[in-house]
Design the sequence.
């Protein structure tokens, strides 16, 4: 067994790719803790940045249930 | 009679994202047995039905003036509930089920009976009730009841403060802890004058210390715990005969301010098309505007 600590990261590759295709659009996101509606500012492999009323919300992709573009 | 101002007592933080379950908990501070609807209606009915108010003017003035302040407390708690529901649903046509998250929130009635605003009910949905009003007509008994009501209301506020760290809820509770503590002291002083009994020596009443509550601090630093307002121009000045001396909590002088505090703007609530509220389309609004301007 290696004594080296290992970084494990879960990525939803197809979700990430699909989200990239709607960057810059108004979207509705259902998270495990309610919904958000705003502009999809940027998409990273593990989180998105959603602008709601000029406030950026950083949302973990792992916590997203569904998304629809408005 | 009352004169109304389009202001609320203090500014509340407008949340980018609320917490509807916190709003449900805060309902107890509005429509619970010890909520602001109870303090308002108790003092309102007691002042309307006061016997020998000329002879006992300072006591009448106290109950009557605090009634006006309680109106403002009802408004502040209601507004905080209305703000705490922010972001609980999304805008979409009905077939996309835009209120789907409300189904799993604690207070579904806030989404069905109102457009995500306050109900005249407690945190479990029980309606506020008229039998929460105690108005015996016996001065000492009513004052003792009011003292008990304020101490109970304070306990409930401390508990809801511990349930939510949402800044909108805490700003409101921090302020009301300070003002509620002031009212506890006001009724204790009234009882002392009416009976000669020093309540602080009679029984170990729950502490009025607010130092453990961060959001209460700035209101105490402004000295709001030492002030009673008359809420009137010229009337109810008799409270000066009760609200005098020093505050036993901090040793500072008690002050009566004639009139009302300056107040702060009341936040605007955005439309919620998924709640059909206010339900006025652009075309409809244009027609309304025409009718409003007609024959001016």
Sequence:
């Amino acid at each position: 067994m290696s004594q080296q600590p290992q970084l494990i990261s879960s990525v939803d590759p197809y979700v990430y790719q699909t989200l990239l295709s709607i960057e810059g659009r108004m979207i509705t996101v259902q998270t495990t803790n309610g919904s958000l509606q705003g502009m999809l500012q940027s998409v990273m492999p593990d989180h998105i940045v959603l602008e709601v009323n000029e406030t950026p919300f950083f949302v973990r992709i792992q916590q997203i249930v569904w998304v629809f573009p408005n | 009679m009352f004169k109304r101002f389009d202001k609320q007592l203090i500014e509340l933080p407008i949340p980018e994202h609320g917490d509807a379950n916190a709003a449900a908990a805060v309902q107890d501070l509005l429509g619970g047995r010890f909520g602001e609807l109870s303090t308002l209606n108790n003092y309102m009915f007691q002042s309307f039905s006061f016997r020998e108010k000329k002879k006992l003017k300072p006591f009448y003035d106290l109950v009557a003036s605090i009634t006006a302040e309680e109106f403002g407390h009802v408004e502040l708690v209601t507004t905080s509930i209305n703000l705490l529901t922010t972001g609980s649903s999304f805008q979409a046509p009905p077939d996309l089920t835009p209120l789907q998250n409300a189904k799993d929130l604690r207070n579904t009635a806030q989404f069905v009976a109102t457009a995500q605003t306050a109900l005249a009910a407690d945190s479990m949905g029980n309606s506020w009730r008229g039998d929460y009003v105690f108005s015996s007509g016996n001065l000492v008994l009513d004052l003792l009841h009011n003292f008990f009501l304020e101490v109970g209301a304070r306990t409930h506020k401390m508990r809801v403060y511990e349930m939510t760290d949402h800044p909108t809820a805490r700003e409101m509770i921090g302020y009301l802890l300070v003002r509620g503590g002031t009212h506890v002291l006001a009724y204790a002083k009234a009882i002392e004058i009416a009976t000669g009994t020093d309540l602080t020596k009679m029984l170990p009443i729950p502490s009025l210390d607010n130092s453990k509550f961060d959001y209460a601090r700035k209101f105490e630093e402004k000295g709001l715990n030492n002030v009673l307002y008359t809420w009137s121009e010229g009337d109810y000045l008799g409270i000066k005969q009760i609200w005098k001396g020093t505050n036993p909590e901090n040793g500072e002088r008690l002050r009566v301010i004639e009139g009302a505090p300056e107040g702060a703007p009341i936040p605007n609530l955005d439309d919620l098309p998924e709640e059909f509220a206010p339900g006025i389309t652009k075309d409809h609004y244009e027609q309304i505007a025409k009718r409003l301007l007609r024959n001016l």
Q: What stands out?
A: DSSP finds one helix and five strands in chain A. The interface with chain B takes residues 28, 30, 34-37, 52-53, 55, 57, 68, 70 of chain A (CB under 8 Å). Chain A has one domain: 13-69. Strands of chain A lie at 26-31, 34-43, 47-52, 55-60, 64-69.
